[in-house]
Predict the structure.
Amino acid sequence: MLRALADRGGFTEGSFVAGFELEAWLLDHTGRPNPVNEAYLRALDDPLVVPELSRFNVELNAPPVDMGPGVLAALEESLLTTWTKCQHVAHGMDTVLAMIGILPTIRDTDLDLANMSAMKRFEVLNAQVLQQRGGASIEIDIAGEDELSLRRQDVMLEAATTSFQVHLQVPFDAAVRYHNASLVSCAPLLAAAANSPLLFGRRLWQETRVPLFEQAVELGGHKGLADPAVRRVTFGRGYVADSLVEIFEENLEHYPMLLPMPQAEKVTRFPHLRLHNGAIWRWVRPLVGFDATGRPHLRLEQRVLPAGPSALDMIANAGLYFGLVRALARQPVEADLPFDAARGNFYAAARHGLEAELVWLDGRRHRARDLLLENVLPQAHEGLAAFGLANAEIEHYLGVVEARVRSGQTGAVWQLGRLARVQGDLHRMMDDYLENQRAGAPVHEWNL
């Protein structure tokens, strides 16, 4: 049905549209997770803020904004407006809202089924993952400067991986170019934005969200765990060739239904397709949505970016993505960078951040820091200009990324450096992190 819709030109060919989702933490004043999202959301009463997997997480959404002059400023204003409202309600409940990839002060005991949000979807998700694993424990093994190895009988570790997901609605006839360019963009984006170096006091990857999320719902396709290319959390199996419909067909062919739940929407809105797609967590995920007239469109969800450290940092990261993907979509990236190299780049960036060695479109290896300064940021500038942004807006937001890269101080680097300064005191480090976040300065300006 989706293929037939695409073949007859049923998708809107409208303009490019931007948006985001931010997953945030609810904390008590000791810096521990505060599992009060049900009462919190009732008090907040804002349709843009919804529950997440755990009772101590919520998700903030932005109304879509047309790509063009002022788009990044509009996204930042939207984020700050919702964030300020959220903090005000949180303070009335003796709670603090925080944006950070993995909360350094979280304990294994916090990630318990008793702290799962009271939604049927999450209950079914947990039960189905365990059932499809045949009851086998979920195994977490991550090695960085330290090592972490543990076994779980639920999916709650996924709740520790909070992100800033950037959306870009694209015309159907350009969707393949932008999807494949988005995959190539993942590594430099993540290298510049890493903000999750710690879990349970262990110093692991610069962006530990990546291995943790992949292992927390470790589940294969119809062949079980046998095929390493088919995973529920995945970079994918290859570039798309002709149409993003290929991904939805792959979903049907390779992945068993994880959320067998009845849907009330009309079949013309593809409710089961969208539900199934939502339980396959590609790092770049295509989504089917609908405009005000009910006509379907395609958008891309870039999922690699962590939450935090500041609102300005996140919007700057979004600007880097929008500009870079526009520039890369004009190039034959599939010919210039083999898919396996793009995937290898992604994991190298997650592990090593700005110090990662990345293979780029010229076939050469570059240190991520140098690649960003010499190639990626100039390309992103060109891409944002092609979207119609004024030079002042481009320089303001990309300047934040450039200064961060030149300083070498990502959120991950700051966390590790500050933790060393305070002799491993996670709570003191987190207090300092929140103080800097409240002040609103980008992370490259934070003092150690």
